[in-house]
Structures are given as structure tokens and as C-alpha cells.
């Protein structure tokens, strides 16, 4: 979502005749910020200091989640502070002298259609904010209350993106399953997007487990463009911790949702988020997280050490876990998941996958592509002429740590 916000700002700047420049020579420097974990928030303050030293003349704009919650603090080191709900206002800055704090307490831009930069993948916001208030999470404070965008503007925005080359759309929201506009729910929206000519693939993030339904699992199968990949954050395998986190499901219910997905999409992939070291997480609770990973067999997880966040209730909980213990639990979780991921990924060897060419890969003469199940495939392009946005079939030939190698199937 932050990447999309940066893109929105970039598109406004482009429309106003600005071009990208080296940081040392730029007239305007913009830093977007993430507040989801303590580490990312701290980084913003040190980054701003570093960049200001490189370019003392530029107007400096701080935006994003940290700007939303700490506007005063950021205004001391920035000319403009732009909160998450005020991006729309940025388009009016050009008549002003780049000074001020723009931090609205509610989303005001739901009907405005921002531009996209040319890319085979277009990020599309469908619902802003979050009303869940998980006890560890700052997002309800940085992204404010849930507001669904009108489906007409979503569809128009997708058509605009397709016109400049998008082949895939990623529908974004903290909780996409809560989408509801004028009686159209998330499934209804998927049906609408599935009909848009030129869209080849549809993805969505993130689903909250409590709202993921069997109907949605079936919709993923029924709609040809919707990719068979589900990101469903579990956070912990312990019911006691899930309750303290206020996640509103227990492990059994979570496992049931996974079953729904697999029933209709047996070849699909599932990823998740895990937090280790939540306050009061005992060794037994942690063991249950490990058991949950064994039982569910996620394709991949994003795992984090718990960190206290401003406004989030868990920061006040007793029995905080030591940094050392969190570090150890994180490494245990990651080692276990590496083994599980390797076992799952091995099954891809020799298979033929539809892949979308996304960009040049890091290695010489390779391009990076993605399967419908969200796996990265590097393809040798030295004898081919593959371009961004091509949709082709590839045979998976090699398994790397976080990607595959593949060869294009010519027949
Ligand atoms: N500490 C650690 N991880 C967190 N996340 C959210 N808040 C915190 C926190 N306070 C993780 C969750 C979420 C992901 C986006 O970030 O796993 O799903
Ligand atoms: Fe944060 Fe929970 Fe909302 Fe996700 S659902 S953004 S973890 S409060």
C-alpha cells in the first residue's frame, strides 16, 4: 500500500512536469514511511537526517504512516508533512509554497483516480483503513477507519492501468474481505474486475482469516483470472496468544479456512505472517506456532519479532519477552519454514507453469517472472526476446533459495 502511495505521488509530480533526479540535485525530496514495526519507524528518522545532509536546498516532504501518527515530530525536520489520508491534497501543493502539515483524520479521496506508472502489475486500492484493532498493531491509527472505494472508480482506474500496459492487478486493502460499496461485496468486485478486457491476472492482499469464506475460496476457482494464491496471516498457533492479540479466530477455525481454500484450489499456494515473542508468549505457546506451521504447510511465511507500537494495547501488557528470546524464536521459526518451503517447492521441479514476465532479473540476461501461485522464476533470455508483460509457459528446472529457474516451453 505504501508503494502504491509513492506511485500516486510520482504520478502527480509527472503530470506537473517534474522528472526523477539524483537526490543530491533534486528540488524536492520525498520520503515515504512505514510504521508497522519499530525498526521501520526508527529507520525513517535516521534516513531523513542522512538525506538532508546530502541535499540541504531541497524542499523536504515526509509522508506515510509515520507522518500520520507523528506529524509534529516530523515537521521539525521536514517542510511538508503529508499523512496517509491526505495524499489527495498533494495535487494542490503546486500553487502553494511547500510548507505545512497535512494530516487529515479521515480518508477524503475515495472517488479520485490516481495515475499509474507503466508496469505489467498495477496496485489498486479497494479499501482503506482497518477497524480490527489487533492489540499489537498500529495500522488502525496510521490508516484510520475502513472506507471502501466506489467500484466505478476502481474499475476506471484498472482500465486506465491496462491502457498503459498493465496485465495484472493486485487489489489492496488491510482487509479486502470487508469490501462493501453500494451492496457490492468483495466477491462481487472480483466478478466485475474479472470481466475487464486486458486484465490477465487478479491478485489480492490481505485477507483477514475471520472474514475468509468458503464462497471466496470457490470464487478463486470459478473466476479464471483470479490467481490461486492466498495470503492469510495466522500470527500465532496458540489460541491463548491469538486471544491476547484480539485476532477473533482460534487455530481450529484458521485451519478450516485453509481447508476451504485447498478444497477448491488444490494446486494453489498459501503464505502467512507470523509474530514471535508477543507479550506473555511462553515456550509452550511458541511450540504451538511451530506445530501450526508443520500442520498447515504454508508455502512461505513472513515472520517478525514482536515490537511495541504506539497506541497499540499490547505495548502495555506485562511479561514482555526479551530481545534475545525473540531473536532465538525468530530463527527457529525461520529454519523450520525454510525446510517446509523447500519440500513444497521441490514439487514444482519439472512442472509447467504459466508465468508473467515482470522485469529484468538481477543476473545477466535473465528476466524475472511469476507463477500464478506467486513463485518467482528466473528465465534465461539470452536467446529469447521476452519483454515485461509477456504471459508465457515455463518449465521449472531448478530450485534456488527464494526462487526457481525455468525455461520457456516453445511447443
Ligand atoms: N510487531 C511485529 N510484527 C508486527 N506486525 C504488525 N504489527 C507488528 C508488531 N507490533 C506484522 C504482522 C502483520 C504484518 C504486516 O506485520 O504479522 O501481519
Ligand atoms: Fe493490523 Fe489487525 Fe488491522 Fe491487520 S487486521 S491491519 S494486523 S489491526
From TrEMBL:
<keyword id="KW-0479">Metal-binding</keyword>
<dbReference type="InterPro" id="IPR023404">
    <property type="entry name" value="rSAM_horseshoe"/>
</dbReference>
<dbReference type="Pfam" id="PF00919">
    <property type="entry name" value="UPF0004"/>
</dbReference>
<dbReference type="InterPro" id="IPR013848">
    <property type="entry name" value="Methylthiotransferase_N"/>
</dbReference>
<dbReference type="Pfam" id="PF01938">
    <property type="entry name" value="TRAM"/>
</dbReference>
<dbReference type="GO" id="GO:0046872">
    <property type="term" value="F:metal ion binding"/>
</dbReference>
<dbReference type="InterPro" id="IPR002792">
    <property type="entry name" value="TRAM_dom"/>
</dbReference>
<feature type="domain" description="Radical SAM core">
    <location>
        <begin position="116"/>
        <end position="343"/>
    </location>
</feature>
<dbReference type="GO" id="GO:0005829">
    <property type="term" value="C:cytosol"/>
</dbReference>
<dbReference type="InterPro" id="IPR038135">
    <property type="entry name" value="Methylthiotransferase_N_sf"/>
</dbReference>
<feature type="domain" description="MTTase N-terminal">
    <location>
        <begin position="1"/>
        <end position="99"/>
    </location>
</feature>
<comment type="function">
    <text>Catalyzes the methylthiolation of N6-(dimethylallyl)adenosine (i(6)A), leading to the formation of 2-methylthio-N6-(dimethylallyl)adenosine (ms(2)i(6)A) at position 37 in tRNAs that read codons beginning with uridine.</text>
</comment>
<dbReference type="Pfam" id="PF04055">
    <property type="entry name" value="Radical_SAM"/>
</dbReference>
<dbReference type="InterPro" id="IPR005839">
    <property type="entry name" value="Methylthiotransferase"/>
</dbReference>
<keyword id="KW-0004">4Fe-4S</keyword>
<keyword id="KW-0411">Iron-sulfur</keyword>
<keyword id="KW-0808">Transferase</keyword>
<dbReference type="InterPro" id="IPR058240">
    <property type="entry name" value="rSAM_sf"/>
</dbReference>
<keyword id="KW-0949">S-adenosyl-L-methionine</keyword>
<protein>
    <recommendedName>
        <fullName>tRNA-2-methylthio-N(6)-dimethylallyladenosine synthase</fullName>
        <ecNumber>2.8.4.3</ecNumber>
    </recommendedName>
</protein>
<dbReference type="GO" id="GO:0035597">
    <property type="term" value="F:tRNA-2-methylthio-N(6)-dimethylallyladenosine(37) synthase activity"/>
</dbReference>
<dbReference type="InterPro" id="IPR006638">
    <property type="entry name" value="Elp3/MiaA/NifB-like_rSAM"/>
</dbReference>
<keyword id="KW-0408">Iron</keyword>
<feature type="domain" description="TRAM">
    <location>
        <begin position="346"/>
        <end position="410"/>
    </location>
</feature>
<dbReference type="InterPro" id="IPR007197">
    <property type="entry name" value="rSAM"/>
</dbReference>
<dbReference type="GO" id="GO:0051539">
    <property type="term" value="F:4 iron, 4 sulfur cluster binding"/>
</dbReference>
<keyword id="KW-0963">Cytoplasm</keyword>
Amino acid at each position: 500500500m505504501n508503494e502504491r502511495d509513492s506511485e500516486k505521488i510520482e504520478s502527480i509530480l509527472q503530470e506537473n512536469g517534474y522528472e526523477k533526479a539524483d537526490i543530491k540535485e533534486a528540488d524536492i525530496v520525498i520520503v515515504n514511511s512505514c510504521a508497522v514495526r519499530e525498526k521501520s519507524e526508527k529507520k525513517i528518522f535516521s534516513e531523513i537526517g542522512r538525506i538532508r545532509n546530502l541535499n540541504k536546498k531541497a524542499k523536504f516532504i515526509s509522508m506515510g504512516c509515520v507522518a500520520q501518527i507523528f506529524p509534529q515530530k516530523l515537521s521539525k525536520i521536514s517542510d511538508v508533512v503529508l499523512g496517509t489520508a491526505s495524499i489527495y491534497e498533494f495535487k494542490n501543493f503546486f500553487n502553494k509554497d511547500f510548507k505545512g502539515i497535512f494530516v487529515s483524520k479521515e480518508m477524503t479521496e475515495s472517488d479520485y483516480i490516481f495515475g499509474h506508472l507503466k508496469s505489467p502489475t498495477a496496485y489498486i486500492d479497494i479499501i482503506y483503513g482497518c477497524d480490527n484493532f489487533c492489540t499489537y498493531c498500529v495500522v488502525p491509527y496510521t490508516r484510520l477507519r475502513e472506507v471502501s472505494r466506489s467500484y466505478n472508480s476502481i474499475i476506471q482506474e484498472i482500465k486506465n492501468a491496462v491502457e498503459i500496459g498493465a496485465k495484472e492487478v493486485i487489489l489492496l486493502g488491510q482487509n479486502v474481505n470487508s469490501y462493501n460499496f453500494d451492496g457490492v461485496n468483495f466477491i462481487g468486485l472480483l466478478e466485475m474486475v474479472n470481466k475487464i478486457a486486458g486484465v490477465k491476472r487478479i491478485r489480492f492482499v490481505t485477507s483477514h482469516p475471520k472474514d475468509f469464506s468458503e464462497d471466496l475460496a470457490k470464487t478463486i476457482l470459478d473466476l479464471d483470472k483470479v490467481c490461486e494464491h492466498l495470503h492469510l496471516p495466522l500470527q500465532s498457533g496458540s489460541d491463548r496468544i491469538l486471544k491476547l492479540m484480539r485476532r477473533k479466530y482460534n487455530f481450529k477455525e484458521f485451519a478450516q479456512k485453509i481447508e476451504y481454500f485447498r478444497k477448491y484450489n488444490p494446486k494453489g499456494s498459501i503464505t502467512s505472517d507470523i509474530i514471535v515473542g508477543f507479550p506473555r508468549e511462553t515456550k509452550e505457546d511458541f511450540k504451538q506456532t511451530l506445530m501450526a506451521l508443520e500442520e498447515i504447510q504454508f508455502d512461505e511465511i513472513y515472520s517478525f519479532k514482536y515490537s511495541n507500537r504506539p497506541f497499540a494495547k499490547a505495548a502495555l501488557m506485562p511479561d514482555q519477552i526479551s530481545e534475545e528470546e525473540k531473536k532465538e524464536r525468530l530463527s527457529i521459526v525461520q529454519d523450520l519454514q525454510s525446510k517446509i518451503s523447500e519440500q513444497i517447492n521441490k514439487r514444482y521441479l519439472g512442472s509447467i507453469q504459466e508465468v508473467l514476465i515482470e522485469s529484468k532479473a538481477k543476473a545477466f540476461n535473465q528476466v524475472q517472472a511469476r507463477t500464478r501461485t506467486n513463485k518467482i522464476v528466473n528465465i534465461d533470455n539470452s536467446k529469447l526476446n521476452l519483454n515485461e508483460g509477456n504471459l508465457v509457459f515455463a518449465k521449472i528446472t531448478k530450485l534456488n533459495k527464494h526462487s526457481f529457474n525455468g525455461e520457456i516451453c516453445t511447443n
